[in-house]
Design goal:
With about 240 residues, this protein is of the alpha/beta class. The protein has eight helices and eight strands, in the order αααββαββαβαβαββα. About 15% of the residues are buried.
Length: about 240
């Protein structure tokens, strides 16, 4: 066993996964896979992550060799890599050389460790940039105030919520939301406290019909809109904002 690897094992056995020594490549392949030892809650969480990725048509590969700091990492770790992708046997594969663009992880249990009395879901991402030859100039514009609050309730609606929000982002229409909440009343109360003129509602019925309900908070009038035409409909309301 190489001396380098021995030192890694003494500090933490999981460090071996981060060692690129050629003698350990085959050992890594034969080592126990993390996916085989997930708890029931972790399996449900990981399945949900994959469902969101597939709903958004984001190509992904499962890499069991990603290891995070156990003191503050939990659930899913991820890397975002640059590179051209192509399809092989119905699965996305990377063609050409890859370069790590970002690394991230969840920290669900970190809040309790720093003294907060409840777990707070959170995620961090470390972006990696090449140092530019010329220092870029930063321009800050006034942040637009969203005039819409997106409300979702039900498992199917939650799954379809991200594509709806993404379509509004691409149309440069800012929107408030509380995707971590599953309660309609709580989300509606947040919309009222923020004094947003309109709420966009997607329940189980709307999710199955691929539609949303747009409600005017002042008059309580509402209209059902197909999600494919939602950005255009909101723009016609005269509240289109540039971000």
């Amino acid at each position: 066993m190489p001396q380098e690897v021995r030192q890694l094992l003494k500090k933490d056995p999981f460090n071996v996964w981060q060692c690129d020594h050629e003698k350990w490549i085959e050992i890594k392949k034969r080592a126990p896979q993390s996916l085989s030892y997930l708890s029931e809650n972790s399996v449900d969480h990981f399945r949900g992550v994959l469902e969101y990725l597939e709903t958004l048509d984001i190509p992904y590969r499962i890499n069991p060799n990603l290891i995070g700091q156990r003191q503050y990492c939990s659930h899913t770790l991820f890397e975002i890599k640059s590179g051209e992708t192509e399809t092989k046997d119905g699965l996305p594969v990377v063609a050409g050389q890859e370069e790590i663009f970002a690394v991230g992880t969840r920290h669900n249990y970190l809040a309790r460790k720093i003294g907060i009395k409840q777990d707070i879901p959170m995620v961090s991402v470390n972006l990696r940039f090449k140092k530019p030859s010329v220092s870029p100039k930063l321009f800050f514009k006034n942040k637009p105030v969203p005039k819409f609050f997106f409300i979702q309730f039900g498992s199917i609606a939650k799954l379809k919520s991200l594509p709806v929000i993404e379509s509004l982002r691409q149309a440069r229409i800012p929107v408030h939301h509380m995707l971590t909440s599953d309660k309609f009343v709580g989300q509606l109360a947040s919309a009222e406290s923020l004094k947003t003129p309109f709420v966009i509602i997607m329940g189980q019925k709307e999710a199955l019909e691929n539609s949303v309900v747009v409600r005017h908070m002042g008059t309580r009038s509402q209209q059902t809109i197909d999600v494919r035409t939602l950005p255009q409909y909101l723009s016609k309301l005269g509240v289109h904002s540039v971000i």
